[in-house]
Amino acid sequence: MTDRLNSFFQSEADIAWEPTEPGVKRKIMAYGEDLMIVRVVFEAGAVGKAHQHPHRQASYVESGVFDVTIDGRTQRLRAGDTFFVPADLVHGVTAIEAGQLIDSFTPMRSEFL
């Protein structure tokens, strides 16, 4: 991935998909040192395995249906819904239907680069 840290504009068509887990891929859409936006696409049945990180995360369900688990609590979310993950809480998702999430992280996830 090219360094886009100092770039103001990105074209979605110019950003390559990165596979992450079976049935899951992502695009790093925009980022700076304190914020990152990531598009994540899930096939039906794909799992974003439970994990934790020191970043705060706010996510928007752009399409599809997901079971989202945060700190042991699970809720089914649909297009238009959102969720927030405080730093260091264990969380993960399962795509009930194929769909996309728009994830925002603060600070940015430098390990994604």
Automatic annotation (TrEMBL):
CDD domains: cupin_KdgF. Residues 39-97 form the Cupin type-2 domain. It comes from the Bacteria. This is Cupin domain-containing protein. It comes from Bosea massiliensis.
